[in-house]
Specification:
By secondary structure, this protein is mainly α. The chain has helices at 7-21, 25-32, 36-43, 51-60, 65-68, 77-90, 94-118. The mean pLDDT is 88. Residues 14-68 form the HTH cro/C1-type domain.
Amino acid sequence: MLPEIDFERIGQRVKQARIDKGYTQAELGEVIGCSNNHMSHIETGQTKVSLSLLLKLAYALDMDLNFFLMDTPYVEKDRMIDSEIANKLSQCSPSTLLSVNKIIDILLEQQEREKDSISY
């Protein structure tokens, strides 16, 4: 079974990108061809945004499609590493980076143990 898509998180990212670009819901809706009411429902996750509309949003907001998929299992792994995680790590102090590195080691060990237990 495929993992579910969190449309609420996608909506939050749409809202973030819209605000960053200085659009109101009505203005962005006009650009992509939908009502501001529909934009509101997308941003709150009350409606499942279609792929075609998500592509229009990405184009209108000058964002990579993966930005909107960041909190889903469908994001490109490299995109998550390159933008989201790298951005957060760049804000860390050297001591915090050392802690993060240790945490990643622990998580990788746990992942390996889970993989080994599944293969039996």
